Amino acid sequence: MGHMLKNTRFKTASYALGLPVGTSSVGPDSPVYGQTRWNTTTSRFEYYTGSAWKAVAHEGNVTIVKDSFTGVTSQTDFSPMSYSYSAGQEAQVIVHVGTVYQIPGTNYTFYGNSQIHFTSAPTNGSAITILHNFASTVAA
Hints:
- There is one protein chain.
- This protein is mainly β.
- It contains no helices and eleven strands.
- The chain has a domain at about 65-130.
- It is about 0% helix and about 30% strand.
- The strands form three sheets. Strands 1-2-3-4 form a four-stranded mixed beta sheet, with no helix packed on it. The chain has a four-stranded antiparallel beta sheet with strand order 5-11-7-8, with no helix packed on it. Strands 6-10-9 form a three-stranded antiparallel beta sheet, with no helix packed on it.
- About 10% of the residues are buried.
């Protein structure tokens, strides 16, 4: 049976977040869009796209970049991000508002610049975290 985390702040130092681990042939019976795991066959971190498991980095080391914003109830657009994206490239980043994963193209979109647009304004003071370079296949 699965467990959910809600409003949990992870500690630093000697603590770590454990991921589900398995081979390419073993995984969730019914994977859900956005799930993540460590594949022991490929030695890669991967995520589920809704139809297939995709490796985060295909070769070498990729530098993950984080942008942080603070939610404002009356604001749906936040910028500047470290990178610019066109409409349709929403799945190239991972976005959380507080501890809630945001669905690409549904909860947020891009305009073709370094700005993210949320469908609904995040609540005042909520932490907005945007992680970049998950679609990269080039070593850093």
